[in-house]
Write a structure and sequence with these properties.
Elements lengths: L20 H17 L3 E3 L1 E3 L2 E3 L6 E4 L7 E5 L4 H20 L2 H17 L1 H12 L3 H24 L4 E3 L7 E9 L2 E5 L7 H12 L3 E5 L5 H14 L6 E3 L4 H9 L6 E5 L2 H11 L7 E4 L4 E5 L5 H13 L9 E7 L3 H13 L19 H17 L1 E4 L18 E4 L15 E7 L2 H9 L3 E2 L1 E5 L3 H10 L4 E4 L19 E2 L18 E9 L2
Parallel strand pairs: 1-5, 8-9, 8-11, 9-10, 11-12, 13-14, 13-19, 14-17, 16-17, 19-20
Antiparallel strand pairs: 2-3, 4-5, 6-7, 7-22, 15-16, 18-21
Length: 527
């Protein structure tokens, strides 16, 4: 991949921006032109560093931004390819396991450096492939590099997770060591195609595991470029194997393989639970999963309503609500719900909609027809249970006819509606009235999910009560830049409770890498 190098001090996260926007758009435009020149190629699977084609029908990667744009054609794995990839990863494991952890850290820090040099090209691909805005795309690329560095830092801070323990007798020496499991299957989602792929795979790799990596069906191009980058950075070719394939059949072949020692997955609760129950046969295997959310913002009578409305719409409409952390329900105190709703509607109407690869466009299409149909279900439910305050229609004309573009939809609904409990993963926001913070927390906790949540209030005691009683892993108070979104490596660990995760220890946090290893005691007695 040819580099498009940006100034080192130009860094954009989901909640902060130190960039000169003229310079930013210049680099993005150049990268977009470059990646468009690469569209339409054929891409193989990569197993042990070798390219493999398939007799199955290829995966045709069509841009959700413009369905007339074919980004590439990707080989589709069958059972033979899965078996080959797993066995290749197993064969590469002893050498990678025995590579000094300092060398693994060096290689992965090299990968982080390469991502930073090429972040605009990755961002341009993501914008075309999954419909992210420019700002969301560059944030995804920046987070990817920071995740690699942060997980390397965890290895360094823990001295490779090697610790001398107490002696029971003078003649013994005891060590506690965390050791890699072996082969991990990594299955990534479409919505953060680079950041979540990098986070999951880099943690597994720096811990000494080898990988069979399957990108989302809707984001194989980003995955292919990541595989290229890892190999260029120095990851042994057999330690990272890239497979593309279709749906649950492909996933079942990987997770059901006897030589897969663990799974790391981000996606829906339904698929995650299927993986969890399928994975362990002879013994319990590690299954590290983040499984979506139904994230609530609570707004109390003392809140800054401008900040609350801005935080809510940024979390609700960023990437068209297709984030596991997206705000999809609001519990507003009855005394301010009318004023808050008016501000939410005003800010929603002001959002620039269109081709998200273009500057100043905030809101693009949903990813595919399945997402569109799910949005239609939510809209129908909104009409049945409550009142649609804005939205509810498919956008049309110009670029809108080239993909699944829908209006951001705000619904006033009774608290018993499924709009407050079911994850639609499309741009639908339900607003309900509550009489107290106790009621808001109680209603929020009724959902089976517990990923992110936010509160807007001027009262410190209400913030403390919210933090202590809400059954959710990632919490924000008075966050104008995103009521329920914006977690960053080393700042806000991303940990799902209840139906939103499997371990209670999430990515971006200090306990993540250790989950890819198992504990071993080493006792040496010298007479």
């Amino acid at each position: 991949m040819t580099t498009t190098t940006a100034p080192e001090d130009m860094k954009i996260t989901y909640t902060s921006n130190t960039a000169d926007m003229g310079t930013f758009h210049k680099y993005f435009d150049e990268a977009l032109e470059k990646v468009k020149s690469e569209m339409g190629k054929d891409y193989p699977m990569v197993i042990g560093g070798k390219a493999f084609e398939s007799e199955l029908d290829p995966i045709v990667d069509v841009s959700p931004v413009d369905n007339d744009l074919t980004l590439g054609s990707f080989a589709s794995a069958d059972e033979r390819h899965v078996d080959m990839a797993v066995k290749t990863a197993k064969g590469a494991f002893p050498a990678w396991r025995d590579t000094p952890w300092q060398e693994r850290v060096r290689i992965l820090r090299n990968a982080a450096s390469l991502i930073r040099k090429r972040k605009f090209e990755f961002a341009a691909v993501m914008s075309l492939e999954v419909g992210k805005s420019r700002m969301e795309s560059i944030g995804d690329a920046e987070e990817s590099a920071d995740l690699l560095d942060y997980y390397c830092l965890q290895m360094e801070d823990a001295n490779g997770f090697i610790r001398e323990m107490n002696k029971i007798t003078p003649i013994e020496t005891n060590f506690d060591v965390l050791r890699p499991f072996g082969v991990f299957a990594c299955m990534a989602p479409f919505n953060f195609p680079l950041a979540l792929s990098c986070g999951m795979t880099s943690a597994a790799l720096v811990a000494g595991n080898t990988l069979v990596y399957k990108p989302a069906l809707d984001a194989p191009w980003v995955g292919y470029k990541l595989a290229q980058l890892y190999h260029e950075a120095g990851v042994p070719v057999g330690a990272f194997n890239y497979l593309t394939g279709r749906g649950r059949t492909m996933g079942d072949l990987i997770t059901g393989h006897e030589d897969v020692d663990g799974v790391v997955f981000t996606g829906s609760k339904q698929v995650g639970m299927h993986i969890y129950h399928r994975l362990s046969g002879k013994w319990v295997k590690p299954c590290l999963m983040e499984l979506g959310g139904k994230n609530a913002a609570i707004v109390m009578e003392s809140a800054d309503l401008d900040a609350a409305a801005e935080g809510i719409i940024k979390s609700a409409w960023g990437l068209q609500n297709q984030k596991c952390s997206a705000c999809s329900r609001v519990y507003a105190h009855e005394s301010i719900i009318a004023a808050l709703t008016e501000k939410i509607l005003e800010k929603t109407a002001a959002i620039v909609k269109g081709d998200p690869t273009q500057r100043d466009v905030y809101y693009g299409p949903v990813i595919n027809e399945q997402a569109f149909k799910k949005w239609e279900e939510g809209v129908a439910l909104g009409r049945k249970d409550g009142e649609i305050l804005t939205g509810g229609k498919r956008l049309s004309g110009g670029i809108f006819d080239k993909g699944f573009y829908v209006e951001p939809t705000v619904v006033n609904a009774p608290l018993k509606s499924k709009l407050f409990f079911e994850e639609f993963f499309t741009p639908i926001l339900a607003i309900g009235s509550v009489k107290s913070l106790d009621e808001a927390i109680r209603e929020s906790n009724k959902a089976e999910y517990g990923l992110t949540g936010g509160i807007f209030t001027a009262k410190k005691e209400e913030i403390e009560k919210f933090f202590n009683e809400i059954q959710t892993g990632v919490l924000y108070a008075n966050k104008r830049s995103g009521a329920t979104t914006g977690a960053w490596p080393g700042a806000q660990p991303f940990c799902g409770w209840k139906g939103s995760g499997s371990t209670g220890k999430g990515g971006c946090g200090p306990y993540y890498v250790a989950q890819f290893m198992r504990e071993q005691t080493r006792c040496v007695v010298e007479e």
